[in-house]
Amino acid sequence: MDWIVSLHASQPFWLWLAIGVVLLGIEATASTEWLLWPAVSAGLTALLTALAPQLGLPIEIGVFAALTVASTVMSRRLIKRVNPKDQPDINDRNVRLIGERARVVEAFVDGRGRVFVSGSEWPAEIEGAAPLAGESVIVESVSGPRLKVRTA
Question: CA-CA distances (angstroms) from residue 83 to 9, 79, 103, 105, 110?
């Protein structure tokens, strides 16, 4: 513990910068998004200690803690504003299928068949007149592994 105190006394900037780099390295490895803002806060604390080295360790720890809490809270608000809940997730393949044109690869029997859409075959359901193999349908919804389609 004494070596950390002596390192801080001689080079507070480098200590905070090292903490930030270590946190950023862990974040890059784990991809948790929880350590990004503490890493940024450690970097800002390093900058503050370079500009005002006489602050002392207790004040620097307080600044680091305050910056971490503030940046984390602000980032959550920003993420909610940028990614509203009513918008579909762009990585959700099933949601992206809705409205796509599909080709019937297995004729519908009793309202069930198979369609080809977005590079793969899917089991599908249809109400009403069943299209023949090779005809086009439109995906209306996704329910688990099954698509609900309508004639095009």
Answer: 44, 6, 33, 37, 41
pLDDT tens for 55-93 read 888 999 999 999 999 999 998 888 777 766 666 666 677
pTM: 0.54
Residue type for position 85: K
Separation CA 50–CA 47 (nearest Å) = 5
Residues 122 and 144: beta-carbon distance below 8 Å: no
Rounded Cα distance between 18 and 46, Å, is 9
Contacts of 56 (CB under 8 A, 6+ apart): none
